Amino acid sequence: MPNNTAIAALLPLLRERHSFLITSHARPDGDAIGSSLALMHLLEAMGKDVTVAFADPIPLIYQYLPGVDHIVHTLPAGIAECAILLECSSVERSGFTEIPATFTINIDHHKSGRPFASFNWIDPRACAVGAMLYDLFVASGLHITRAMATCLYTAVMTDTGSFTYTSTDASTFALAEHLVERGADANQIAQSVYFSNPASKIRLLGIALSNMRIEGEVAWSTVTLDEMARAGADAEDCEGIVNYLIGIAGIESAAFLRETISPSGVSEFRTSLRSKSEVDVAAVAEIFHGGGHRNASGCTLDGPLHSAIATVVSQLHIACRNRPSVTAMPVEVC
Question: Has this prediction a pTM greater than 0.85?
Answer without folding.
Answer: yes
